[in-house]
Amino acid sequence: MVDWIHYSNKIEGAGFDSKSDTESAALGQLHSERAKDVTSTLNLLRQTYKVSTFRPKKAFDAVGEMIFDVPALHKWHRALTQHLMPVLSGCFRTWGVDTKSRVGRHVYPHHSILPTALSSFSKFCYDLCKAGIKTFLDRDTYLLFIFGYAAFVQFHFVDLHPYVDGNGRMCRFLSKRILDNVCPVPFPQFKNRDQYIAALELGRGIPTSSSLLANLLLESAIDHYEAILLKNENSPFVELLVATQNNLEEFKERMHSSAVKDLSAPDKAILERTFVALDGGMAEDVQVGNRVVRIKAWPSFSLDDI
Asked: Rounded to whole angstroms, how far apart are CA atoms 8 and 15?
């Protein structure tokens, strides 16, 4: 989580240059204006983070976690930027904005159309998400759709540029919120700022505008998770299962219907006893067959848990 906050802020020149300082700020050990860039992002993630390690049983269960409307966008933007601009946070910009890029000057949409444009964009994303989840049913195509959809939202939101400041951090937050459905442990967006900016600028000149960003998101995820696997390649295989007070019953049902369908009755009994213990908020490692299953209860969000 610290990685995600650090690199998302760093793209905009916000927060700290040092990742260790970002971590210290997240843990409440630093109290400066730059630290507020970290803690405001962390507080937003605390409000919106959903632990999800499985695709929902019903496809449409996931839609609510990947869509948004204008009031929600304003609320999230206020959470991110109120410490920077108390009056303008959560409000549409009211003047024109342009930017210089490697392919020439880019003019963002006129401020007078932003309320209608953002509302239409939100509705289109809802329709796109609903259609995609209904269409891409197998695991691989569903995964690719989620990355493509996250890139689409990220690219077009930042190209609308609805706010005076914080548009970049908002667009990466939106894509992270979508990707949480398949990547509950987030990966950094993005360690290489030049690659990220190039994906945005060059994307404006091609019909599939967000495809470069989708590829970059996927490559970033692969690099991040490959590095974790290589670092732990000699460790015993551990399956991390996360339960919260709100999803414990659903979690138990999913475990018994899919993830542990090949287990013996004694092993299932071990898991059942562990789930009962989780109601008390404990966490433990359990030997299940030839695997070690680490089952942990998350009654509330904690930075140390990520």
From this structure: 9
Structural domain boundaries of the chain?
Answer: 1-49, 55-229, 238-305
* SS3 category, 249: helix
Reported as a single tens digit per residue, the pLDDT across 59-118 is 445 777 789 999 999 999 999 999 889 999 999 999 999 998 888 899 999 999 999 999
**Between 139-160 and 193-203, two packed helices, what is the crossing angle to 10 degrees?**
80
Query: How many Å apart are CA 110 and CA 222, to the nearest integer?
Result: 37
Give this prediction's pTM: 0.77
CATH architecture of 55-229: Orthogonal Bundle (1.10)
C-alpha distance from residue 186 to each of 92, 96, 303 (Å): 29, 34, 12
102 neighbors 195 (Cβ within 8 angstroms): no
- Helix axes 211-231 and 167-179, enclosed angle (nearest 10): 60
State how far the alpha carbon of 128 is from the alpha carbons of 78, 85, 154, in Å: 26, 33, 14
Identify the bridge partners of residue 107 per DSSP, sorted by sequence position.
98
Are 62 and 177 spatial neighbours (Cβ–Cβ below 8 Å)?
no
Place of tokens 């490697």: 102
Write out pLDDT tens, residues 9-39.
999 999 999 999 999 999 999 989 899 999 9
Judging by DSSP bridges, how do beta strands 238-243 and 291-297 pair with one another?
Answer: parallel
Question: Which three-class secondary structure state does DSSP give residue 129?
Answer: helix
